[in-house]
Amino acid sequence: MNLTDSAILGSIIETLPFGICIISTDNWKVEMVNENYAAIYSKPKHALLDWSVDYLIAQGHSLELKAIKESATHKKTITTLPADIVVERDGKKEHITVSALYSPVTDASGRVTKVAVWITKHQNINAMTSGGITRPKYDLGNINALINEIPTGVAVLSGRDLIFESINPSFQDLVPEKELIGKPFLKAFPELTGSELEHSLKRVWIEGILLNFIDHLVPLFNRSGILEERYFTYRLIPRFDDQKNVDGIFIFTSEVTHAIDNKANLERTSNNLNQIINMLPASVVIIRYDHLEVEMINDANLEYWKKTREEVIGRPFLEILPDLADQPFAGQLRRVMETGEIIDVKESPVMFTEADGTIRETFVDYTYQPLVGLDGKRDGVLVMSFEITDRVLARRQLEQYADQLLAANDQLSVVNSKLSKSESRFKYVFEKAPVAIGLLRGKNFVVESANRKILEVWGKSESIVGLTLADALPEIKDQPFLGLLNEVYKTGKPFYANEIRAMLMHEDELKEIFFNVVYQPVADAEGQIADILVVAADVTEQVNARKAVERSEAYFKMLAELVPAKISNALPTGEVTFFNKKWLEFAGMNFEDMRDFGYNQLIHPDEIEKFRKGLAEAAVSGKPYLSEMRFKNKKGTYIWHLNIASPIFDEDGQMTMWVGSATDIQTLKEEEQRKNDFIGMVSHELKTPITSVNIYLQLLLRKAEKAEDEFLKKIYIQSIKQIKHMTDMINGFLDVSRLESGKLHIDKNDFLLSELVEEVREDYQLQFPTHQIYFAEVPEIEINADQLKIAQVLNNLVGNAVKYSENGTNVFVSFEKTDHKVRVLVKDEGMGIKADNLKKLFDRYYRVEQESKIAGFGIGLYLCAEIIEAHGGKVWAESEYGTGSTFYFELPLSGIV
Ligand code: ADP
Question: Whole-angstrom Cα distance, residue 719 to residue 724?
Fold first, then answer.
């Protein structure tokens, strides 16, 4: 436990079985002492308070200012050697031995504010021997009773073996089933042999230091002998004998397992929530209790407030943003908590006072929603807001210009005498304005004035001033503008529109332009509508950009509907945003149903796990994930599909979406199945006659040997070899068809690798007399595998090495052992393999094209790969074309898989 400045400190120090004196680092004076300390010097507590350390030392106290200061500056605990001192008790002088330990006390911010001195008193040896007691005893004063009461576990270990000498009930409560007294520590807790705790006890014993551990993991056996993760906060304190040697150790401990578990859970859940709210495009903050404390806030909101997370979490809202006190928010927040109503406000101004005193005016749409606490009471508010300052300001600017112009115009009509001056001012505002402005006079809309911007938008020069709008812009004849202007002229009501589309002639070319526009009627002195003021902002670029996005989305959807595959589109979170028609038809659902609960239910249960893993890998690697998987159609039948899930990334490498395509491969699969079944059946049927032929040939061979007919013998041996080839081939096909139907059975046993090698090596010399086959020394290792199948793999690789190299060349078989694996290498001096072909070798029915026809079917290596992968290993080849190849396979060692 970290001692912190707090009210609890007082009660803790009184509870502990030591003399304790707390010294303030501000002035090196005594700030607190406990009864035990005062009793050592036979003084009442108050007589020691507020005195300086120097004064106490002068009074004969066993204290060292140097140690105190060192403990404070280096923030570490310091032990000093026991010292003999003389104290006066009841008027008599008494010799005692005390040892002191100095530990720093920090405040919440980690600054050392005090030093705690822990004093232990040893009985004077002379006094003890005279009483006939030989072994010096640690004096706990009169506090044994107290120790029994305190909620902290206390144990005294004595001697080199750390035998439990005494424990208090709280300590026993930690391990209620164990008997501890009289047992050495490691006998009582064998599970801690070699643990950090054992190591620490040794250090305390050897170095005589005090050690402190906070929230430490100490795995202990439970009642049923299973290791349980438990957490303790504990302190190990050496006990000294009168020779100043350590003769025992005190353990003070309390269990914190629950607190740790809760903390971890809490952190996990709040972390999830934090991530979610951070992803929202809105500002989010959760405010709780009457004092409006900020409990949680997302990044968007921090940015809006211009604060850091540290500045706001746990602090009252109005303390963080005092400038909002005279705005309505605090009152509204409390109202939501009181009444439970939801407050929803649009375009609310919010004023912040910046550090330099300027006012930042912002606008937000916000909602306040009541939150209910754990106790079921309303005690908080979820605030969600969207800042719309830009939007509001842009619109305001438009309105403002319209107003300004109106005002200018009023002046114009009212104060005729100042006409020229006003007009020039009016012109000035007109020209400088960053928006397009024009004034249309009378019911024919004569262009009275037009600023540079509006001429640009219209694509015309100043020469149109004085023309009617219809003549100035003949291209708008069939567009809605003249009608709209007429309406404004007639009704006197202004017209507003956003992103209105116009086709305007720009240098002989019709151009599509979008703008936000206001038609503001202007009345003359009599109150009759005389003019219309046009204020417009060109927003073509924004609209085009947005349309481009919409268009590419539309293209994607169109394309998705045209292709024969099932196409889907999803957010990086996995939430699907689009299924094409083929998908919906296949599933027999509408989009909403399929999105909400359909898609995952369509996947065959056996494939869900693998699919999830594949997606997770694709999201990391950025490569599309390809898999053959089954989806359930509307009739409830699972249909095989080739599914491709591609993660799509933007220029910054952020994933933006998933695009999925699934193609029906059911017919292909079925055909493949039929072919496999056929091969399986034929191979099976061939097996029996061939076995018989083999037996007959063996008999005939024996007969020929007896008759010493060399000619026949040679023929029979050749035939037997051919039959063996055929048997191997048929077995290969049988294995393939078993593999396809998932029936390849791996039967694992423990065996020595050397055993397997011994079995095959002699066989090889007979089988392959054309080549020298060398075996390196086999490491002494046991593997857990299907012995027959591994032998089959080795046969295959050695067989290929012989088959694909000239007679008279060598084949080397060697072994390498690493930590958890064994690797087998088969190296030949044959024709080698081109780099392009290396990867494909292990595919089913794959054969390298070659001029010299060497017989084979391309299934040997495929089977090898399947067998090794079924063992959790891998197989690969390296080769230099024309020089030779090396094939490798690797298996995990026993006990690891
Ligand atoms: P098969 O030998 O029946 O064709 P495998 O699956 O055993 O079938 O081998 C696939 C192909 O890999 C062979 O056709 C051959 O082209 C090539 N290959 C295998 N082993 C070697 C080797 N040691 N050297 C050169 N090429 C090899």
Answer: 9
